[in-house]
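Please fill in the sequence for the structure shown.

STRUCTURE ENCODING:
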């Protein structure tokens, strides 16, 4: 069975600096993808209604079905074989992870890197990026697509 690096994607409440994480997806070493909705903290109030069309998540859904930041962090850390996560947008992912960890009063224990770092064929990567609009996909689909690119199944 192949072994994969850990990929991660996070959907945000807005595109603003004060955005908070609303959904998270990450992959396990065996390629399985896990997802979770994140229940907002009381001071997380930045919301862009237009993004609901992109990620399909309403505030009501988060309050009803979201997991606490602590639950999400606990599960994520339990699943990781190593603390390096690969992301389509590592800087934004890092900020949203920091916000998640801050909500629990914890220091960030993982780091992010660009998912394309391990792709040696720049033309293949360029063509793949043109074919798959990662910015317009929900977090679980972004993780699935990064796994496919890594496996060479694009």
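FILLED IN BY: designer on duty
SEQUENCE:
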């Amino acid at each position: 069975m192949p072994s994969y690096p850990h990929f991660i994607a996070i959907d945000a409440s807005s595109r603003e600096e004060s955005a908070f994480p609303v959904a998270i997806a990450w992959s396990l070493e065996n390629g399985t993808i896990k997802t979770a909705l994140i229940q907002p903290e009381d001071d997380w109030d930045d919301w862009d209604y237009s993004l609901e069309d992109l990620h399909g998540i309403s505030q009501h859904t988060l309050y009803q079905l979201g997991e606490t930041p602590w639950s999400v962090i606990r599960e994520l850390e339990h699943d990781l074989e190593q603390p390096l996560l690969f992301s389509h947008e590592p800087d934004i992912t890092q900020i949203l992870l920091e916000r998640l960890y801050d909500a629990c009063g914890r220091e960030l224990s993982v780091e992010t890197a660009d998912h394309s770092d391990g792709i040696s064929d720049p033309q293949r990567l360029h063509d793949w990026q043109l074919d798959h609009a990662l910015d317009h996909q929900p977090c679980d689909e972004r993780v699935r697509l990064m796994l496919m690119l890594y496996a060479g199944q694009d």
